[in-house]
Amino acid sequence: MQQVSVHRIPVSDPADVSGLMALLDTGELRAEDIRAVLGKTEGNGCVNDFTRGYATFAYSAALAARLGITAQEVRERVAFVMSGGTEGVMSPHVTVFAMREVDATPAGQDKRLAIGVAFTRDFQPEELGRTAMVTETAAAVRRAMEQAGIDDPHDVHFVQVKTPLLTAERVADAHRRGHTVATEDTYKSMGYARGASALGVAVGLGELAADKITDAAILHDWSLYSSVASTSAGIELLNNEVIVMGNSASSASELVIGHAVMRDAIDAGAVRDALRQVGVELHDGEVPEQARERIVNVLSKAEADPTGQVRGRRHIMLDDSDINSTRHARAVVNGVIASVVGDPMVYVSGGAEHQGPAGGGPVAVIARIATGTDR
């Protein structure tokens, strides 16, 4: 059976690996068991956010030294998903997922946290934001589910994908070879890549039929979405890296994951629903201090509602020429979640195209199994 451990580590800068090294030094974590590193870095979260690549370089180099292999070999076995942007009170951190095989007896009907990691092939620039990306991502999701030992898609509660984006150089390369691209706006390409990847998650989990997805539907038909997809785009890679998180009867972990779907950026009720799914009790709508230690991390998506309104009130996030709308949205959703769980160090990724209903997005909670009175 697989036993998954999850470690949330605060960082002082994008290249700060000291927290990870401390866990390795004490033996609490083994380098060979690490399967994924999910980070929030303090860049702008846009095309030119190099804190993502900087953090990936730092962590892959640190693990390479411990494992006795090259940094490139580390990146081929560990998914590094670095999401830029820690606006508002969001505290920069990384979440490290480790897995080892153990001899254990299945815990009856209880299903515990399991993870699977898969990688797509590299994409050509003309494939970004189009159905080729949907198809490849769907296949990777299925491979990751199999690795996690999850048979029922309903047991999948969060699928994190890191996806590439278009740069001026990549657009020019496509044109030289006689191809068009989904968009020539490099910032908009982030949304296209996120959206296509999210629809790939939906197809992979059976939330949507593959024949429902066309190039024309991507970033246009908002009725199409996944309720568990979280996708993040970056300049630092050419393929998709997929992390499937769910519960499995073949897991011996002391952790469990649950999720809900925020209908908009201020839907604190969905956050509470996700907490209740993993057995975290609330007091006056908030997590009491004695229960906070059970929460390993909260993972969510955020976006500015494309209608320009939230619950009938006008918002200006899409009209601000100084601060991109994804930066506004991350700050808002992080503040909502932090107000419920009592901790601003949670993972909120901006840009939720086809990730939950328009203007909303999935929110998942990873928590330790309750024992005694620590609910």
Itemize the secondary structure elements and their pairings.
Layout: E1 2-10, H1 18-26, E2 34-41, H2 51-67, H3 71-77, E3 79-84, E4 93-101, E5 112-119, H4 131-148, E6 156-164, H5 168-176, H6 186-204, E7 229-234, E8 241-248, E9 255-262, H7 268-277, E10 295-302, E11 309-310, E12 313-314, H8 325-341, E13 347-350, E14 361-368
Parallel strand pairs: 2-3, 6-7, 10-13
Antiparallel strand pairs: 1-4, 2-4, 5-8, 6-8, 9-14, 10-14, 11-12
Helix pairs in contact: 2-3, 4-6
Question: What can you tell me about this protein's structure?
Answer:
By secondary structure, the protein is α+β, with helices and mostly antiparallel strands. Helices cover 28% and strands 25% of the residues. The protein has 8 helices and 14 strands. It has helices at residues 18-26, 51-67, 71-77, 131-148, 168-176, 186-204, 268-277, 325-341, and strands spanning 2-10, 34-41, 79-84, 93-101, 112-119, 156-164, 229-234, 241-248, 255-262, 295-302, 309-310, 313-314, 347-350, 361-368. It has a 4-stranded mixed β-sheet. Strand 11 and strand 12 form a beta hairpin. Helix 2 crosses helix 3 (71-77) and helix 4 packs across helix 6 (186-204). The mean pLDDT is 95.
